[in-house]
Amino acid sequence: FVTQDPLLFNDTVAANIALFDEGLDPERVQTVAEIAHAMEFIDQLPERFETTIGDGGGRLSGGQRQRLAIARALYHDPPILVLDEATSALDAEGERLVQAAIERVMEDRTAVVIAHRLSTVRRADRIIVMECGRIAESGSHEELMAAKGVYHGMVALQQLEG
After folding, report:
1. Which helix (H) or strand (E) holds 2?
2. Are residues 16 and 80 both part of a single domain?
3. What are the strands, taking DSSP E only, across 10-149?
4. Taking residues 34-58, what's their average pLDDT?
5. Residue 63 sits in a domain of what CATH number?
6. What's the average model confidence in pLDDT over 136-141?
7. Cβ(11)–Cβ(52) under 8 Å?
């Protein structure tokens, strides 16, 4: 489960990725960090994986915290991955890196992605559009755009806004 504000502890990068795994596997930690595009900043930290990140990951940016949370989810290899607004609080560069990580994470697994930013769901096999607590429509991006319904309107609005 990856939320828009991931829970991180005042511990090392490695311990935050391998959360609650007493037999922490350093190779696996590095592999999932690479998949999550976290190595770009981990390599810049003074002690890399052994750097303490502060309460809530306070020494990291929002995008860095998100990528650590994605690495943690990968480390534990869930059959279903839930991403709840995982890119909502990020700047453009942070969103690009987290989106790239999400795309790699979703390969060969079921993912439930909850998002207002439609760029997050555009490549999904199936998009379910909720409106007023009910399913308004579902399909691929292309199918929903062709239907010119709720999803089409949301995409058009987001393109106007930004």
Report:
1. strand 2-3
2. yes
3. 80-84, 110-114, 127-131, 134-139
4. 93
5. 3.40.50.300
6. 95
7. yes
